[in-house]
């Protein structure tokens, strides 16, 4: 079972402020109010992803699984693995109830 822990944004910002010394001469940017953070050198347009919006990762996983399930309809080896994953999921779900 996965337990989600919510960390207040103020705690995350405090942690990030401590990390700023590692980025002297670097500009930190966020297009979405701190959910996604990029760094770039002053004067450069090349950005490096520092932190990604967790919702983006979840959304990407949903689309990946959709593609996996679609491909498993025509690929027997993938179908077998998906069926095994479903079996393990059902067993774990029963165990946790």
Describe it.
With 97 residues, the protein is of the alpha+beta class. It has two domains: 44 residues, no CATH class; 40 residues, no CATH class. 52% of the residues lie in helices and 13% in strands. The protein has a three-stranded antiparallel β-sheet, with no helix packed on it. Strand 1 and strand 2 form a beta hairpin. Helix 2 packs across helix 3. It is elongated. The N and C termini lie close together (11 Å).
Question: Which short descriptors sum up this protein?
Answer:
about 100 residues; 3-stranded antiparallel β-sheet
Pattern of helices and strands:
HEEEHH
Structural class of the helices, strands and pairings? Answer: alpha+beta
Mind telling me the C-alpha Rg? 20 Å
Low-confidence stretches: none
Read across the widest sheet, the strand sequence of neighbours is 1-2-3
Oligomer state equals: single chain
Largest sheet: 3 strands, antiparallel
Count of the separate structural domains: 2
Distance between the termini: 11 Å
What is the global morphology?
A: elongated
The tally of strands reads: 3
Indicate the topology:
Layout: H1 9-19, E1 26-29, E2 37-41, E3 48-51, H2 54-72, H3 76-95
